[in-house]
């Protein structure tokens, strides 16, 4: 068995990078009109910049794709030839340039024209890879969204009823508070539809009208009441166990069809977590709200680029991870694909990235490059 002994540390002129997967991000960006649109745009306080708006924004995307949102992280790539080559940059901006340009672009009224660019680029890059699969009840297509209405201090923000103006249907779990489960069981027995999935268990589903507060108009409430007299293991209970789940809703469909929808909100929850933790965006880099809003818009595009990289590897037979999954989380994409060491080769007026033969992800990255070129 080889034993690690004392080694002499040296250096050479090899162009080696630890972000060999950034080229895939660059290929995806090249498929969008974003670069040309940013170059043609005007930021009044930067009429003739040495570093183009395109280079600034693409550099931010390159940082976010590595989970490095801070401005100062760009300094490590100022003289990195692969970073510029992967994202097709004419010049890598400095940290002050990055900060000033984003502040200028975010606060000036003329640059509100940038806002549609992110959505257009997202639509362009997602169209060939992503298919939306809405859920249907009664023929109406819907997409469940997990909306957290209290991420910050809610004091005097008056968010109540905000979804009404947008005409978005809602399905919100109620807090029973002081409502007795026995009262809901009595209502369910009188008005609900009973199903007996096994001996000793009865499930009631139904709908009623309740007012959220005294004086409010009544809203529809769907409920599911489960009465257990025998446990799943066959143990007879001395007193019946009553489980009640109730939901405010604007949907008019059958309660038996509506109730399975609520767990679907959990499908979105991991995506929220990835956005904050895997991309390290729990704390935004700027002290200005407008700039942070701009960074969030750029991060949304970057999130989708990373998501495409992950989804494109699902059916790849060369992926060393054998556990079957329906999505690959961003942390895995960043660690195994973006942070994939490569050597930049320059020969005969050509440049290409070369991956080590022992790297199990080299074939996966090769497939991604071939698929996107």
Automatic annotation (TrEMBL):
Pfam families, sorted: DDE_Tnp_1_4
InterPro entries: Tnp_DDE_dom
Residue span, Transposase DDE domain: 248-372
UniProt protein name: Transposase DDE domain-containing protein
Source organism: Sulfobacillus benefaciens
């Amino acid at each position: 068995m080889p034993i690690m002994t004392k080694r002499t540390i040296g250096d050479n002129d090899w162009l080696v990078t630890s972000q060999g997967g950034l080229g895939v991000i660059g290929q995806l960006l090249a498929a969008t009109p974003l670069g040309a649109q940013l170059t043609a745009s005007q930021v009044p306080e930067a009429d003739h910049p040495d570093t183009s708006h395109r280079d600034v924004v693409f550099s931010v995307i390159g940082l976010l794709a590595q989970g490095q949102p801070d401005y100062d992280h760009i300094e490590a790539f100022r003289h990195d030839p692969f970073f510029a080559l992967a994202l097709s940059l004419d010049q890598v901006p400095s940290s002050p340039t990055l900060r000033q340009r984003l502040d200028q672009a975010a606060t000036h009224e003329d640059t509100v024209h940038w806002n549609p660019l992110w959505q257009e680029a997202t639509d362009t890059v997602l169209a060939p890879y992503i298919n939306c699969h809405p859920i249907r009840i009664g023929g109406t297509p819907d997409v469940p969204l997990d909306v957290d209405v209290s991420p910050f201090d809610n004091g005097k923000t008056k968010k109540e009823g905000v979804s009404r103006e947008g005409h978005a249907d809602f399905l919100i779990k109620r807090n029973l508070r002081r409502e007795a489960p026995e009262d809901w069981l009595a209502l369910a027995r009188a008005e609900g539809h009973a199903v007996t999935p096994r001996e000793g268990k009865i499930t009631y589903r139904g709908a009623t009208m309740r007012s959220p507060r005294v004086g409010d108009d009544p809203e529809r409430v769907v409920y599911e009441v489960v009465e257990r007299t025998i446990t799943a293991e066959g143990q007879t209970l001395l007193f019946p166990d009553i489980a009640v789940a109730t939901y405010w809703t604007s949907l008019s469909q059958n309660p038996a069809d509506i109730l399975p929808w609520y767990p679907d909100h959990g499908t979105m929850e991991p995506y929220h977590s990835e956005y904050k933790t895997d991309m390290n965006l729990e704390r935004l880099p700027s002290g200005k709200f407008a700039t942070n809003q701009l960074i969030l818009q750029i991060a949304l595009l970057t999130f989708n680029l990373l998501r495409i990289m992950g989804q494109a590897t699902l059916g790849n037979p060369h992926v060393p991870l054998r556990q079957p999954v329906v999505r690959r989380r961003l942390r895995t994409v960043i660690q195994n694909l973006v942070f994939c060491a490569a050597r930049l080769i320059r020969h005969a007026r050509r440049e290409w990235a070369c991956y080590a033969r022992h790297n199990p992800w080299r074939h996966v990255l090769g497939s991604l490059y071939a698929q996107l070129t």
